[in-house]
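[job 4417] fold queue: 2 targets
>>> target A
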Amino acid sequence: MPVVDLRVDRSLLCPNFDGYKLSFDPVPVIQQELLATPPLKLLPHSDQYSLLHAEAFGRHNMLCPDPWLRENCYYVNKSRQVVLCSYDGQDGRPRQQRVVHTVEEKDRGDGYQQSGGAYNYTLRFVSEKYCVLCDGITMYYLFDTGDRSRASSTASWQLLTSTQINQESANRGFVLYDARLDVIQERKQISLLAGHVGRRVSPRSDHADTFFMDLTWGCWTQQPTPSDAWSYSVREELDTTGSIYYCAFEPRAESVVFSTNRDLLTKSQRAAAAAAQPVAQNGEDVEIAATPPYTWTQTDEDVVIRFRLPAGATRNDFNIRSTSHQLEVECLAEILLNGALYANVDSDLTTWTIEADSLQLTLVKQLQQSWPHLLSDDEGAPPEGEADVPLLPDRSLPIPNLEDPIEDCDLGLPDVDVKLVRFNLEAREITHTIFLGSTPPLFTTSLRAGFPAAFATRQGVDASLWLQVFQPAKPGEWTVRHEGNLHAFAYVQASKEQRKFTDCCPDLDYAVICEGLRHVLIYKSRYDSAGGLRKRNGPQVVIGKQHMVSISDEVGEILGLSTARNVITILTEKAVLYLQV
């Protein structure tokens, strides 16, 4: 499996960037009242308490931008109405909100209530005239939006078709990750990928249940008939127990790219893995793996081995034979331990005692060192308390640079290995991998209409944005291109612990961090040349500009964020805010 490197375009870097300067210049904020009812915001159900549930609800951006018209964005209110929020860049003020469609409510046995496992609505625009809506329960809707570029248009969206996300699944509650329109052999094809947080019940009573993200890859295809009917099919089912940081189809949708911190498996691969595991029979737990009848601890000088005392056993029932390199422990004709030790011990100093319900055996090492294993054949239990601790490589570590202290953003996530993987539908396997270390992508955004979403990674203190590179002549090759850079933004973002949404302008003129309640932070890296200030024997210093906008408590929680060339649109519980940048 090829490993792809992130190759930084050094022409996009700014080595003389010297940070952001807080600006006290006011940012004009226009507040627009909601058209009718407040935005529809669903909270997790009582049994939706896992980390995956928290991410699916907490990270959900309820304001969907139109990639073809960035000044337009949409949200769904409590009346199931899709509402358009539009900003007039020439007049410098928002247009009146209007309803473009009302989603038909269906009774799914809950009395027309979108509750009991339902997720929030998700919108995805796939072209200048098509839009896909996921109702957060079990359905997709495909709309013909008409000409959205006409500001004076009052036409409503036309429903073309609707379908169940996965007819063979009883899952309730989906979130739409990505949707893409392609024309394959003169036929329109819309690829869709939705996720549902599932729960896998453990066969053992002493093990917790496992939550996982169940992903359904579906596809709408327009049939070459006079009616232009759309047919839907499920192409693949995937799942992972990790978080989904990024998900986007590549052009032609023959592959999909994920960023996650766990393995990604197909339905057949997961079934094969489950079949290889013992399962509970007749309500009794099956031992998953043989547990050694002893535990052991060590220091640099000695090793202490503890054996649980069998019922009715006494001191005279044990038979212990010990040499400098071999150890055998027998009790009641049962061999508890027999093998060559990892290193030599001083057999004259070997002692053993009976304490409470265990036998304690003490070995004194001939050489002061740490043993990775008790036995030389690499078998048996690891030292107690060190089962999951990887050993450091036996080599000299580099001397740290004490002039650059470690920051919180340098540490990443503990015990996490984040990867970006490309899953190919034809091969039914992962074909390419990018290792991102312990730091997941900082955020994802749409830079160009019709292109896969870009993702931002940390490169030093900067945030680098990357786009997939599609090569039709070489479908087996895949890579990503360094599209742009946000100077020092990775360092800035890591310090904002209350951040809820992060995004940037399509031309990378600014980046924005939005907190849940009070503050919106705007960063413009191309702002000031510091009055001609230069570093000693170096180029002219560049300083960025930072704005902090405080949001009134009266508008409620921030629910969505959208960025355009000269305006930032923010959806709250009680109003829509337009920040003129």
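>>> target B
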Amino acid sequence: MTRRRTLGIIVYAPALVDNDSRTLAIVQGMERALPGLRLEWKVSKEGQPIALPRRDAWLTEGTKKGKFPLVCNGDESHPVTIHGLQTPARQAPGGQPLLDVHGELPQDEAVMGVAVNVLEGVAEGAHAFWGHATPFSAGVEIARQTIDPVHKPGVPPRGLPALKLPENLRSPEIPQYLGWLNYWSAAAARAIGFPDPARDADLLSRSRRTATGGWVVQLTDAPLDLDDPAHLDALLRAYERFPEIGGRSSG
């Protein structure tokens, strides 16, 4: 069976704290970005959607337990989901625990037309350090760039550079890798040296500044497809431009 084409969103943010309002802000940010979207269902153990008549209160209660439980749109033919995971300090950059927010949406015309808004809404709602939105197929290959001689040996695909494990990065502001749409907070942009008007004219032509001073940077006009030589070249050039990404500048 052919896998449904999806757009994956991941953002990395400070860990949840008691009475954290960000889970609700993230969900509402995604809803505002995608007209008609209502993330007012959870999923049963059997995989069936269950309506949440008091969604906001349910999310708030989950946050008190240090969780960001999965919510969805209840449409099994056109599923949209979002949830959060906690990365412990020992596995996180700079030894700081993180909230990892994961969203998945259909890669269709309606979603792709507002994908920049969706990523921005989720990332800004999370107060994220950095994040990305990338088609699933490209995301799988990009994930294979992260290697370690002991814990994750291998060779990155398609001549892409090898990237360090998250726990080997010095700071959570440093992006671990690139995607199709990239969210960089103001701190992340400073860490990697973006923007440099003399060097980043092409990227700036596909970039947008956010209300908090961050950036959403689009690598290619069409969704990233690594079978397209022009897209692969754009990704390689971006890695060359930003050696801090993935911890490559620190040896």
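[job 4417] complete. Note on B: The chain has one domain: 6-16+81-250.
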